[in-house]
Amino acid sequence: MIRQQLRRGLNYARQTVVGRPALPVMTRLIRGDQRASTFFAAIEFVNYEQVPGDIVEFGVFTGISLALLAQGHRFDDKGMARRVAGFDSFDGLPPSAEEHARWREGACQTNHAWHPLAAPGARVTPEMTRELFAACGLPAPELHVGLFDQTVPPVIPATYSAVAVAHIDCDLYESTRSVLTGIAPALQDGTVLLFDDWFHYRGNPHKGESRAFTEFLDAHPEWQAAHYRSYGTFCNAFILTRK
Ligand SMILES: C[S@@+](CC[C@H](N)C(=O)[O-])C[C@H]1O[C@@H](n2cnc3c(N)ncnc32)[C@H](O)[C@@H]1O
Q1: Tell me, what's the pLDDT at 9?
Q2: Helix (H, G, I), strand (E, B) or coil at 23
Q3: How far apart are CA 163 and CA 57, in angstroms?
Q4: From the CA of 58, how far away is ligand 1's center (Å)?
Q5: Which amino acid residue places its CA nearest to atom 24 of ligand 1?
Q6: CB-based contact 94:172 (threshold 8 Å)
Q7: CATH of 24-242, one of 3.30.360.10, 3.40.630.30, 3.40.50.150, 3.40.50.1820
Q8: Beta bridge partners of residue 88, listed in sequence order
């Protein structure tokens, strides 16, 4: 009892003199990102339902969402072995024929997000993501650097023959079209598709990610999409099942 009181007193004194200890990096990521609970739910879903395949992300930027996805799998993998892979040019947004209120070519070249380690304004690199994973004690992700049209076809389905969860966070119609065409051979009955930018373009269903997914479903009548969750400010998730 006395020792407990002493320990509390010492802790209080230390916090008063040197300040509160910083929260672990992953705790800060989870608290700071409203998408985290949906990432964790999606991974729990594929692990529980035993949907085979890897966790892949298209649009990594500084690695925050990829680290959260990896953390979701680390929480409780239910015996499912999965790789965590990210695809990005790390050069920011390519040009698009669709005009958005804010986005311009090259946006996302520098750190503007809440990366807990990188300086605001620092040039985004694959190393930034690797450092974030290391700081969270996560195994290094597999990163594929370049435009999706060039990086996806050589590895899907050759290296990644099955995809259980795809986080599609590349903003643009053209980029999303490349991603969906590229991952088609690896899709599974039960694959969760997380679209980060679904309601951008003021919610216009004929633009952006929403347009690309509608066109994909029209071109692939073997798949049907069940709505899973709307989350965050702009995001929407679906589960694919075979007809
Ligand atoms: C909004 S950021 C991703 C944010 C990240 N998922 C997060 O939540 O922290 C969009 C990323 O998509 C990438 N991107 C967009 N289109 C691409 C393409 N066609 N090929 C490769 N990368 C692309 C950009 O380089 C940029 O880093």
Answers
A1: 52
A2: coil
A3: 10
A4: 6
A5: 92
A6: yes
A7: 3.40.50.150
A8: 145
Give the confidence band of 22 by pLDDT, cuts at 50, 70, 90.
Answer: confident
Sign of the Cα pseudo-torsion (23, 70, 57, 145, in order): positive
pLDDT, one tens digit per residue, over 26-44 is: 999 999 999 999 999 999 9
pLDDT at 19 (0 to 100): 52
- Ligand 1 mutation target, pool 90, 114, 171, 174, most atoms within 8 A of CB: 171
The pairing of strands 187-195 and 223-231 is unpaired
Question: What is the biggest distance separating any 2 CA atoms in the chain, rounded to whole angstroms?
Answer: 71
The predicted pLDDT at position 115 comes to: 86
| Domain range annotation of the chain | 24-242
Q: What is the mean pLDDT of the chain?
A: 93
